[in-house]
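Hello support,

Our group uses your service weekly, and this is the first time we've seen a run hang past the timeout. The protein is DUF1552 domain-containing protein. I'm not sure whether the cause is the sequence or the server load. Input pasted verbatim:
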Amino acid sequence: MSRWTRRNLLRGTLRGSAVAVSLPFLDLFLDGNGEALANGLPLPTRFGTWFWGCGVNTSRWFPSKLGAGYDLKDELRPIAPWQDKVTVFSNFNCVLDGRPNLVHWSGVMATLSGAAPLKGGVNGGTSELPTIDCLVADYMGQSTRFRSLELACTGQSGVSYSMRAGSTVNPSEVDPVQLYRRLFGPGFQDPNKAEFTPDPAVMLRKSVLSSVKDDRDELMRTAGAADRQRLEQYFTSVRQVEQQLEHMLEKPAPAEACQLAKEPGAMALGPTWDVATRTHDVMAQLLVMALACNQTRVFNIALSNAGSNLRKPGDPVSFHELTHEEPVDEKLGYQPRATFFIERSMETFASLLKHMDGIREGSGTLLDNSLILATSESNFAKIHSVDNLPILVAGRGGGRWKSGQHISGNGDPSSRVGLTIQQVIGMPVNAWGQGAMEVTRPITEVMA
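Update from on-call engineer: The timeout came from a worker crash unrelated to the input. Re-ran successfully.
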């Protein structure tokens, strides 16, 4: 009989004291039935995703002209000041290939993970593969204090489109005050200060993880195949924590644009439009300074959940409900009450671009040194269409991305956008996706 039970901990000794690290749930717990900085380093590239729910009106959002100098339709007009830094993608699809169209889920997971999911719906679901932000964080997130930051604007921490695989969601920060304290509280080390003192608490945490190595090795020898796979995933995350802690014990590199942000006051949280967009604005400003201070290089922002519960003050009917219940105005050709949220969503995205483009870095801006993948889960939400998904990429990737174009995918999988981003960032990947969404051909028109 195995000595390992659910109550077991990995144990070790640190400075003469016993220490322990908990374990994930395993089968063996069951019975038999179961440019350049001052230090010479190049300016870092940042990557983020920005999600809004319930799609667009095709004729009012997508440009008619391809290439540079594309025309801006009414719903996309808010990005006008940054048009030369925003790439618009049209006619890129979620290719279902026999899989179900899981309403308000298939489209976003296809674009962000490269695979059409098998389970899900308006309240979320599963992902067949890790989302692109996780892959990018694995590649370039180990040298920062936070591998990535997830933010949601409607007060619900479960609203997140960052997933490792399966049903595991990386939860979102929803309160600007708590986000501030996490970023700029006692653990923050100003990269521009001359003196540096390692945090004793960080030193202790790193030593605890290192001290349980012998128990960890014994458990790996004892576990069955399925448990070894789970443990390998678990210990990979433990090693990532160790790497993060190692970085936190080193003096951070100078960051010319870094300034200590001010703590925001307490705010109401929720899906009312004014409240959600105020939350977005405050958290976006904190995020931008976190990026400028090299606290993280990867982020995800969800303006709302996919079946958007955003609503106007005093109105019990949500954006999602409007997309299905409001008739299309015969003279206008669209749903005016629902379209309010589409237009304002693009204004909110433009506000993030304004904040990022206002931070000078080297000869450019923070936006110039970033790539932000913005998308929604459907084209026209009234019919849950997942062809011609609305996709934007903002930024220039440190000069490696040819921005300011409108590119048509001619019906190709939307995963081509994600593959291109990964290659532009420098990741060694030649193919990405699963099944009909697997692609090997990047979009060379945007590759500098």
